[in-house]
Write a structure and sequence with these properties.
With about 450 residues, this protein is mainly α. The chain has 18 helices and two strands.
Length: about 450
C-alpha cells in the first residue's frame, strides 16, 4: 500500500509542477528543462521495461497452453482501449475527425496494460502468492503488457503515415522480438540494477542518436524509436540469476534482494514524477491560461508535417497551444474534467472484467472475479504510453483526462486489492481450492 501511495503522490506532484514551472521559468529555459525531463523519463522507462521483460516467463514446450491465456489477456487489454477511445471521440470531443481518431487511439492505449510490477508485489505481500488467481494473473498481466508494447508499432504508423522511416523502425522491432524469443532467459549478462540502468541509458542514447542523425536526412519526419520494445526484449533475453540457498534460507532470484527491490521502487517513483512533469501546460482547458509552447517542439513538428509544408507552422502553433479535444477550442471547467476522469476510469476498469467470463471450468466465480479485479491496477507501462503520446504533440483535455485517470486508478489500487483478498478468502473459494488440490 505504501508503494501505491508513493507512486500516486509523486505522479500528482509532477502534474502540479508541470503547470507551475512554466509560469516562473522563461520559455527557453523551460524548453531545455523539458528536454532533460524527456531523456530522464526515457531512461527510467527503459529500466522498468527491462525488469518487466526479466520477469516474463514462457515454457516453450507448452506453448499450446498459453494460446487461450494470450487471447484473454489481449482482449482484456483491447476492450478498455476501445471503450476509452470511443469516449474520447464521441463524448469528450463530439467530433470524429480522422486526426482526432488517431490521437484518441494512441492516447487511450494507456488504459490497456495492467501494472505487473505493482500487482505482483502487492499480491505477494497480501499472502496470495499460492493461489490459482496469482498464478494465472502473472501470465495475463505480462501478456497484456506485451500486447500493448507490440501494438504501439502500428499505432505509431497510424500517427505518422506510411513513411520509409517507419520501415527503418519496424525492422529492428521485429529483430528484437525474434531475439527475445530465441534467447529467452539464455543471455548470461549482468542483471543487477547498475547494469540494467546502464542498458537503459545505452538504449536511450542510441534512440536519440538515430533520431538526430535521421534529421540530417529528412528533417520533416525523423526516425523516432521508442524504448518500450527494445528494453522489454533485452529483459526477456537476460538469464535469471539465482542466489544459492544458505542454511535456513531459500534460494532467491538476485533481483529479489532488498537492495535491488529498493532501487526499483526508487526509480519507479522518480519515473512517475517525471511522467507528471512531462505533462504539457493545460492551456485553454480550465479557463484562461497563457499560451505556452509545448515541451517537444521537434517531435510535434514531425507529427504535423503530414500536412503540406506551408501548413506546418500553423499546425505546430496549434499543438504548442495544446490540442483541444473540444471542437472550436472551447474550454472545459475542472468539475467537468473531474467527471470525465471518473467516467474514463470506470470504463477502463469495466473493460478489464473480461477474464471473469473465462476459465469457468477451472475456478470458482469469485476467483474469476478476483482475477478480473486484480487486472485493474495501472502504472508504469500505461504512463509510458502517455509519454509517447505527448511526444507526438497530443495534448489538451484528452491528455489531461488520461493522465488524471491514471493517477486516480493508481490511488484506487489498494481498494482493488482489498476486494481481491476478500473474494479469495470467502468460504466458497476456500472449498474450491481444497478440491483443486485434491484433484492435482
Amino acid at each position: 500500500m505504501k508503494k501505491i501511495m508513493l507512486f500516486s503522490l509523486f505522479l500528482l506532484m509532477g502534474l502540479v509542477l508541470s503547470q507551475v514551472l512554466p509560469l516562473f521559468i522563461h520559455s527557453a529555459q523551460y524548453e531545455r528543462l523539458a528536454h532533460v525531463t524527456k531523456l530522464l523519463t526515457t531512461v527510467a522507462l527503459g529500466f522498468i521495461m527491462i525488469r518487466v521483460g526479466y520477469e516474463f516467463e514462457l515454457d516453450k514446450s507448452r506453448l499450446g497452453l498459453y494460446g487461450w491465456d494470450y487471447v484473454v489477456a489481449a482482449t482484456a487489454a483491447t476492450i478498455p482501449w476501445i471503450l476509452v477511445a470511443l469516449y474520447f471521440v464521441f463524448v469528450l470531443s463530439g467530433d470524429n475527425g480522422t486526426t482526432l481518431w488517431k490521437e484518441a487511439l494512441l492516447t487511450s492505449r494507456f488504459a490497456s496494460p495492467t501494472s505487473a510490477g505493482v500487482l505482483f508485489s502487492m499480491l505477494a505481500a497480501a499472502g496470495l502468492a499460492g493461489t490459482w488467481m496469482y498464478r494465472k494473473i502473472k501470465i495475463l498481466a505480462i501478456f497484456d503488457d506485451l500486447d500493448t508494447v507490440i501494438l504501439m508499432i502500428p499505432l505509431e504508423m497510424l500517427i505518422l503515415g506510411l513513411k520509409w522511416q517507419l520501415l527503418v523502425v519496424l525492422v529492428p522491432m521485429i529483430i528484437f522480438l525474434l531475439a527475445a524469443w530465441h534467447f529467452l532467459h539464455n543471455l548470461k549478462i549482468p542483471v543487477t540494477w547498475p547494469w540494467v540502468l546502464g542498458y537503459s541509458v545505452i538504449i536511450t542514447i542510441a534512440a536519440e542518436g538515430i533520431y538526430h542523425t535521421s534529421k540530417l536526412i529528412d528533417e520533416v519526419v525523423p526516425i523516432h524509436i521508442e524504448v518500450l520494445l527494445p528494453a522489454f526484449a533485452i529483459g526477456c533475453m537476460m538469464a535469471h540469476r539465482i542466489i544459492p540457498s544458505k542454511s535456513g534460507q531459500k534460494a532467491i532470484n538476485i533481483i529479489e534482494k532488498p537492495s535491488e527491490l529498493l532501487v526499483t521502487v526508487i526509480i519507479s517513483t522518480i519515473f512517475m514524477a517525471l511522467v507528471g512533469l512531462s505533462m504539457p501546460p493545460l492551456a485553454n482547458i480550465a479557463g484562461p491560461a497563457p499560451m505556452i509552447e509545448q515541451m517537444d517542439r521537434e517531435v510535434a513538428s514531425a507529427y504535423t508535417t503530414l500536412t503540406p509544408e506551408h501548413k506546418v507552422k500553423k499546425e505546430v502553433t496549434k499543438i504548442r497551444g495544446g490540442l483541444s479535444s473540444e471542437p472550436g477550442g472551447s474550454t472545459a471547467s475542472w468539475p467537468v474534467i473531474a467527471l470525465h476522469v471518473i467516467l474514463v476510469t470506470i470504463l477502463s476498469n469495466i473493460g478489464k472484467l473480461f477474464p471473469f467470463f473465462c476459465y469457468k471450468e477451472m475456478a470458482h466465480w469469485k476467483e474469476r472475479l478476483a482475477l478480473a479485479i486484480g487486472m485493474f491496477p495501472r502504472g508504469e507501462v500505461g504512463a509510458g504510453v502517455l509519454i509517447i503520446s505527448i511526444s507526438y504533440g497530443i495534448g489538451g483535455t484528452m491528455m489531461t483526462v488520461a493522465m488524471l485517470s491514471l493517477a486516480l486508478n493508481l490511488m484506487l489500487t489498494g481498494v482493488f486489492l482489498i476486494a481481491v483478498k476478500k473474494l479469495l478468502h470467502s468460504e466458497g473459494v476456500l472449498e474450491a481450492q481444497k478440491n483443486r488440490l485434491k484433484a492435482e
